[in-house]
Amino acid sequence: MLYTDAQKQEHTEEILTYLYQIALRDSRIPIVLPGKEFTEEAGLAVRAYQEAYGLPVTGEIDDDTWNSIVATYREMTENAVPLIVFPSGSFLLREGDSGELVLLLQVLLRIAGNHFSNLSPVPASGIYDAETAAAVSQLQEIASLPQTGTADRKTWNALASLMNSIPLGI
User: Which of 28, 45, 53, 109 could be stapled to 32 by a disulfide with Cβ–Cβ 3.0 to 4.6 Å?
Assistant: First the structure.
């Protein structure tokens, strides 16, 4: 199978996202925003990473560098404390509700929708409208939950779990 340019760009963006997150936590690595192109600045960040983590300094991402960046990223983020913002108990968000919690739900649905083709991104208005309810129903279907269109704690946890599968970054 051929390695397409689109695949190369996706892999470049993925590894630069990991490197970006490492750089936020390790001042020895210059911060370079992730992108689909391997820029000169990205090469400098890779060199700094290789030097800091005892790899041959080439500025290129070979298998050893890739594996090291991924391992370092996972080590740095595995103990991250999740943000718990959804109220406990029987609290529900439903069509007609509004406010900051609805806005947060919409922002997370939008981010997830931009990463997963089977989930529609929604506008972030802070108003739980029919479009938000439809996206919540899609999420519930994906998570094998009852498709109510109402965001309960199980739905929120399914969304949080989905968000955890997205690499941190921009």
Answer: 45
Most confident of 19-23, 48-52, 90-94: 48-52
What pTM, to 2 d.p., does this model score? Answer: 0.53
Orientation angle between helical segments 40-52 and 5-25, nearest 10 degrees: 50
Cα distance between residue 11 and residue 32, in whole Å: 16
Domain boundaries, the chain: 5-77, 100-164
38, 43, 49, 133: which is closest to 93 by C-alpha? 133
Helix 63-77 to helix 40-52 angle, to the nearest 10 degrees?
Answer: 70
Three-class HEC string of 53-88 = CCCCCCCCCCHHHHHHHHHHHHHHHCCCCCCCCCCC
Strand partners, 98: 127
Structure tokens at 10: 């996706």
More confident residue, 38 or 120: 38
Structure tokens at 81: 């404390």
